[in-house]
């Protein structure tokens, strides 16, 4: 053990002048990973509907013009390849409900590379900024991982037709 002690002392001496950098770097990492507040989900309970189907799938694809909504160039540009999947912005596994306001159209490549983490605030803001440029007039660009009464009622109506 005593043999290692001088080595550690040497390390510490080399690192000490840079230690102050550690605090802002850790702070920056925390800020960049922070989720968008106030957009849900309100619980981590999983939606019983796992995937976007039928009307909700069609609605998400339609407002995106059938093209991928994923970011390019650090959230500035838009992918724009033909969309193949409708995916959750806040992942289903993290309590993100399968509702249009939590949906995004993705191409095959971006759907595969998507992580299972709640996206950070800058991802959500970037998506909403890009959407203002291509969403049809009147379509809300806001990401909202919350099931509202309208969505719930639409589901109940749909379920009633299947009985
Ligand atoms: Zn894409």
Could you describe the 3D structure shown?
The protein contains six helices and four strands; from the N terminus they run H-H-H-E-E-E-E-H-H-H. With 163 residues, it is mostly helical. The longest helix is centred in the N-terminal third of the chain and has 15 residues, at 19-33. The protein folds into two domains: 4-33, no CATH class; 54-162, no CATH class. Strand 1 (71-72) and strand 2 form a beta hairpin. The radius of gyration is 22 Å and the shape is elongated. The N and C termini lie far apart (73 Å). The mean pLDDT is 91. The strands form two sheets. The protein has a two-stranded antiparallel sheet with strand order 1-2. It has a two-stranded antiparallel ribbon with strand order 3-4. Bound molecules: zinc ion (ZN). Zinc ion binds at residues 68, 70, 79, 81, 106-107, 109-110. Zinc ion (ZN) binds at residues 68, 70, 79, 81, 106-107, 109-110.
Keywords, separated by commas or semicolons:
44% helix, 7% strand, mainly alpha, single chain, 163 residues, two-stranded antiparallel ribbon, binds zinc ion, 6 helices, two-stranded antiparallel sheet, 2 domains, elongated
Q: What is the H/E order?
A: HHHEEEEHHH
Instruction: Describe the global form.
Output: elongated
Helix proportion:
40-55%
Largest sheet: 2 strands, antiparallel
- Give the C-alpha Rg: 22 Å
Number of strands: 4
Sequence of strands across the biggest β-sheet:
1-2
Structural class category = mainly alpha
Tally of individual helices? 6
Strand content: 5-15%
Average pLDDT score? 91
* Through-space gap between termini: 73 Å
Q: How many domains make up the coordinates? A: 2
Q: Write out the distinct hetero groups bound to the structure.
A: zinc ion
Which stretches are poorly predicted, pLDDT < 50 over at least 5 residues? none
């Amino acid at each position: 053990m005593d043999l290692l002690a001088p080595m550690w002392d040497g390390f510490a001496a080399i690192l000490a002048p840079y230690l102050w950098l550690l605090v802002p770097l850790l702070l920056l990492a925390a800020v960049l990973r922070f989720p968008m507040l106030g957009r849900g989900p309100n619980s981590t309970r999983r939606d019983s509907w796992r995937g976007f189907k039928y009307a909700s799938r069609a609605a998400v694809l339609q407002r995106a013009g059938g093209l991928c909504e994923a970011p390019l160039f650090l959230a500035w540009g838009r992918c724009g390849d033909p969309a193949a999947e409708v995916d959750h912005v806040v992942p289903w596994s993290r309590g993100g409900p399968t509702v249009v306001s939590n949906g995004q159209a993705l191409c095959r490549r971006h759907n595969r590379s998507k992580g299972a983490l709640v996206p950070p605030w800058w991802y959500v803001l970037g998506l909403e900024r890009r959407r203002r440029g291509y969403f049809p007039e009147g379509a809300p660009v806001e990401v909202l991982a919350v099931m509202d009464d309208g969505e719930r009622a639409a589901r109940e109506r749909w379920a009633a037709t299947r009985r």
